[in-house]
């Protein structure tokens, strides 16, 4: 052994021991530690670190442990208890270099306790609530021995046909970027090495939400301007917030799959943005390079992926089987492999696992006797967050709030559907622990017998939908479908409605309908439910429609029939209680839509921040040769940013501190908002900007600032927003981000459509 080598070993051992004593691991220590370890690894061990294996996949537990002990697996995902993870970490400790394993899971909007789905969280426009949900879910997952979450999912989507729109935070760049940052900060906390935190692995880099036609896994073809201006900023926000991981998208971008996209992975992610963490392929994505038509076999796929900069390969064999041969033949270099391994080791270091491989697994004697124990849930937090995510879309004749002594007929296929409350990607959530709307209403009233329930309709009778759901979950369909005829179900509901003062109808989609691989061509309520709403309307009783769904739905007809409409998404473990809080007015709704609701699927994509065009449709001036559909009303059913309250708010005109903005100065926009109703309430004041004439067509408006304010009846507040040059910048034809001199319009409102305007000039 030469002197240098010996020094390396001594430094390495000293550092490792030091880490065991001290959880504060500085960056210099990290680099030296990783370099030393890397120098001592065999090729086989290095490649092992690049393999991320699914629990419950092809390998048995025994085989996985044997592979780990041989140094041939770097991490696993899909195991969710300390007791499950401990034997795997034990196996790693039996391996030659004792490199710890990490355990990952999709903790998307909750763990044991489920919070509302991400689209619902976004509807709160409440960063404190979102932070609380992320912190709480993280603490629960870390307490189950999980080191990394495959989240946050920050794909902008403007296509509700895509089932995964439910997993993201909506259509808007500014709102999603803000949430992306809050999520990462609250998952990782001060350090992902803290025992009650995890590492965030943001996803799906990049542009997954823009797939063609909303068809899952499809292709994306997009101008660089739109990419950089609209779709990439949320991923960038996760990088700026220090996310330790990045999961790579399954789609191609302008013809090149993300998984083999050197421009995306190297030039954008690492060079432009300075990302220093670990990159992870999505499930089987390296193998899929063959189907994408860019690799002729797995060997070529592995070569393309490692060269592009995919550090870890999720659940495929390509790296394990082909990297040795590729290296031997000189098609890839040792540096290609070492660069990837360095990132994996670095991530494990950052997760605190070298200091203590059992950081989150703990000791067996401290394992919870029952992982699903009620005492492990965070119900108060879930309820508080959930009620902030509900959006009141209509409230005619003050139908809401309901009186607690009213006789209520609760009707609908989702009124008592515990697993649907949990929503897509509900991880370790347990349906029997979730509060359905039926439970929630009965919990809230003095006399539960006054809340009667009838199913009223099966969720759907559409064969294709039934087969689709049954394919993943045959039991769900069996349990959910009532064999009685549609008419018999409606008759039962009408009987319940006859004796009631008010009808509450819980309708929407099964959670499996808005999930991965669950794209739809129609966005309407299934016809069984449409018929139910029509029959209920005919009773003449006040009708409240409670929507449960993971995507915007085209419910024009039903919203006309209902007196009140409340969008509740999938509201999580405490959903029923939270919805009851709003229906009875114990909480005044304050949510705002994070995504546009179209009138019909034919309008999709429909989003508020579209580019200016030469022949826009002008409301009140229908006619030929303007941009319109002649067979429909124009515009959205509900615009982005929309949501009502039980009180009313009035806005003053906008006043600006100056009509001119210098490059290093600011213009302060002020607006007074007053609660002119009878109850206290919160609303979200939204500021949009428009570049009136630029070197390229610019959006008709773009959200740049917002604030959620609580006002008592009669109370008013003047809000100020500072507008600076940075707010006006955009990616020009040369892809340079710059602000151009000229006129700008400031628009402030309580949604994206109904706004007050003022103008200023950038000098
Ligand atoms: C999804 C990812 C997810 C992964 C692991 C994939 O099918 O696209 O979002 O993190 O599975 O569960």
Automatic annotation (TrEMBL):
Main location as per UniProt: periplasm
The keyword ATP-binding is assigned to this record: no
Record-linked InterPro entries: Cellulose_Degrad_GH3, Fn3-like, GH, Glyco_hydro_3_AS, Glyco_hydro_3_C, Glyco_hydro_3_C_sf, Glyco_hydro_3_N, Glyco_hydro_3_N_sf
Location of the Fibronectin type III-like domain: 683-752
Catalytic activity entry: Hydrolysis of terminal, non-reducing beta-D-glucosyl residues with release of beta-D-glucose
Location within or outside the cell: Periplasm
UniProt key word Disulfide bond: no
EC number: 3.2.1.21
One GO cellular component, as annotated: periplasmic space
Pfam families: Fn3-like, Glyco_hydro_3, Glyco_hydro_3_C
The family this protein is said to belong to: Belongs to the glycosyl hydrolase 3 family.
The protein's name in its UniProt record: Periplasmic beta-glucosidase
Organism of derivation: Pseudomonas baltica
């Amino acid at each position: 052994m030469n002197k240098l080598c010996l020094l390396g070993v001594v430094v390495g051992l000293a550092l490792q021991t030091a880490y065991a004593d001290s959880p504060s691991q500085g960056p210099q220590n990290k680099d030296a530690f990783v370099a030393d370890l890397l120098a001592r690894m065999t090729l086989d061990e290095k490649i092992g670190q690049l393999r991320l294996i699914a629990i419950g996949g092809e390998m048995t537990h025994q085989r996985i442990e044997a592979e780990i002990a041989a140094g041939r697996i770097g991490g696993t995902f899909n195991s969710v208890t300390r007791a499950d993870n401990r034997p795997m970490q034990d196996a790693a400790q039996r391996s030659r270099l004792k490199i710890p394993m990490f355990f990952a899971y999709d903790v998307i909007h909750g763990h044991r306790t489920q919070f509302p789905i991400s689209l619902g969280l976004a509807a709160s426009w409440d960063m404190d609530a979102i932070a609380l949900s992320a912190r709480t879910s993280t603490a629960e997952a870390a307490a189950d021995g999980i080191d990394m979450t495959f989240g946050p999912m920050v794909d902008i989507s403007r296509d509700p046909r895509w089932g995964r729109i439910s997993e993201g935070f909506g259509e808007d760049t500014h709102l999603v970027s803000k949430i992306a940052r809050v999520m990462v900060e609250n998952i990782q906390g001060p350090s992902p090495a803290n025992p009650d935190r995890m590492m965030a692995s943001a996803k799906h880099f990049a542009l997954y939400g823009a797939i063609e036609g909303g068809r899952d896994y499809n292709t994306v073809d997009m101008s660089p301007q739109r990419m950089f201006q609209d779709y990439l900023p949320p991923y960038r926000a996760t990088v700026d917030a220090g996310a330790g991981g990045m999961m790579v998208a399954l789609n191609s971008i302008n013809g090149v799959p993300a998984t083999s996209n050197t421009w995306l992975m190297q030039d954008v992610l690492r060079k432009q943005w300075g990302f220093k963490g670990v990159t992870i392929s999505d499930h089987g994505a390296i193998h899929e390079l063959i189907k994408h038509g860019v690799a002729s076999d797995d060997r070529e796929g592995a070569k393309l992926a490692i060269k592009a900069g995919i550090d870890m390969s999720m659940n495929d064999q390509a790296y394990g089987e082909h990297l040795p041969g590729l290296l031997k033949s000189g098609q890839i270099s040792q540096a290609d492999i070492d660069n990837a391994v360095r990132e994996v080791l670095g991530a494990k270091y950052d997760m605190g696992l070298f200091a203590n491989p059992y950081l989150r697994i703990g000791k067996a004697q401290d394992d919870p006797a029952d992982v699903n124990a009620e005492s492990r849930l965070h119900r108060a937090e879930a309820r508080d967050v959930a009620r902030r995510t509900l959006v009141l879309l209509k409230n005619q004749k003050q139908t809401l709030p309901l009186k607690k002594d009213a006789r209520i007929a609760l009707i609908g296929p989702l009124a008592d559907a515990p697993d649907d409350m949990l929503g897509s990607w509900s991880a370790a959530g347990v349906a029997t622990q979730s509060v359905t709307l039926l439970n929630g209403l009965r919990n809230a009233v003095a006399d539960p017998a006054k809340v009667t329930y009838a199913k009223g309709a099966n969720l759907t009778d559409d064969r294709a939908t039934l087969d689709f759901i049954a394919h993943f979950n045959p039991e769900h369909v069996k349990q959910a479908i009532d064999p009685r005829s549609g008419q018999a179900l409606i008759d039962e509901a009408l009987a319940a409605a006859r004796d009631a003062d008010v009808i509450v109808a819980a309708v929407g989609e099964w959670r499996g309908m808005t999930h991965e691989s669950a794209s739809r061509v129609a966005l309407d309520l299934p016809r069984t439910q449409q018929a139910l709403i029509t029959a209920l309307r005919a009773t003449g009783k006040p009708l409240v429609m409670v929507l449960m769904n993971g995507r915007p739905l085209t419910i024009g007809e039903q919203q006309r029939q209902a007196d009140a409409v409340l969008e509740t998404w999938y509201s999580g473990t405490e959903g029923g209680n939270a919805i009851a809080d709003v229906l009875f007015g114990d909480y005044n709704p304050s949510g705002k839509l994070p995504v546009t609701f179209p009138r019909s699927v034919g309008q999709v994509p429909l989003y508020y921040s579209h580019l200016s065009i030469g022949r826009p449709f002008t409301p009140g001036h229908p006619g030929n040769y303007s941009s319109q559909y002649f067979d429909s009303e124009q515009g959205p059913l509900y615009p982005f940013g929309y949501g009502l309250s039980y009180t009313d708010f009035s806005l003053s005109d906008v006043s600006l501190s100056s009509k001119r903005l210098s490059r290093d100065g600011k213009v302060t926009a002020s607006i007074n908002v007053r609660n002119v109703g009878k109850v206290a309430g919160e609303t979200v004041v939204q500021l949009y900007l428009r570049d009136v004439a630029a070197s390229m067509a610019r959006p008709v408006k773009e959200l740049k600032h917002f604030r959620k304010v609580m006002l008592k009846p009669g109370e008013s507040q003047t809000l100020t927003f500072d507008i600076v040059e940075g707010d006006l910048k955009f990616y020009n034809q040369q892809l340079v981000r710059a602000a151009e001199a000229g006129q700008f319009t400031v628009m402030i409102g309580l949604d994206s459509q109904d706004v007050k305007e003022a103008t200023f000039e950038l000098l």
